[in-house]
Automatic annotation (TrEMBL), chain A:
Binding site for heme: H100
Species in which this protein is naturally found: Dankookia rubra
Keyword terms, alphabetized: Heme, Iron, Membrane, Metal-binding, Transmembrane, Transmembrane helix
Superkingdom, natural source: Bacteria
Protein's name according to its UniProt entry: Succinate dehydrogenase cytochrome b556 subunit
TrEMBL record, chain B:
Organism: Dankookia rubra
InterPro entries (alphabetical): SQR/QFR_C/D, Succ_DH_anchor, SuccDH_FuR_B_TM-su
Main location: membrane
Transmembrane segments: 40-60, 72-94, 106-128
Protein name as it appears in the record: Succinate dehydrogenase hydrophobic membrane anchor subunit
Amino acid sequence: MSIMQDSREATMEGRRTDGTPIRRPLSPHLQVYDMMQLTSALSIASRITGVIWSVGMVILVWWLVATATGPGAYGAVSWFLSSWLGVLGMVGLTAAAWYHTLNGVRHLAWDAGYGYDLPTTYKSGRAVLVATAVMTVLTWLVAIIAWAS
Amino acid sequence: MANEYAKNTVLRSPLGRVRGLGSAKGGTHHWWMQRVTSAALLPLTLWFALSAASLAGAPYEEARAWIAHPVNAVLLLASIALAFHHTAAGMQVIMEDYANQEWVKVGSILAIKAICWLLAIASALAVLRIAV
């Protein structure tokens, strides 16, 4: 075998259950699969929303540290969160967080061995999208009512 | 046939292979902890999202009083620990999947862990400063 150019190739040298060696393909193969099928699109979105939420955690840290620091620092977070950029960002973050959470439930079901057949996969995928919309609207309904009062 | 057999002979025992404990001796621990933290974060996310939403536009004293409440403080600390563990685990997998240079992979995973630890400690300290 030639010199390994990509360290990921090391993980592609596998063994079948009977112990015979096999060189597995690097996945996902971008040229072969249509990545905009609902199934693959939702899978990619799950990862992207996870990254968005990871970055969004900084806002939680900021909010907690500012509240511990004092009214001045708290005022700065409140100002940012009530600005149009802050609201826009928080709406996006809420949607991303709910999507990641709800698709996570789907993943947990798969891990437990349920819902693997294609029709169920599509059905649960659409359910996650609808539920994400419902939970995002519900969260912001609570926020708007709290904000107005 | 004999040659074919010799080529495919593995020194690792079938038991060793089936246990899945590779050279790192970690087995499925990383994967399993990702599932455990995700299951724990489900109710916590529901609680936090609705609580945070109801704190929208809250004045300083109200936000402070909410964090200081014993139940909220405990759940916040649990959420912080679980969320940063889950975040670090997820970001690590992403780097393992996409980084194609060993030093980039190791370096970024260490950086992710450092950032997550520092942010988790900072948030936990903030909650404790308010609640204690």
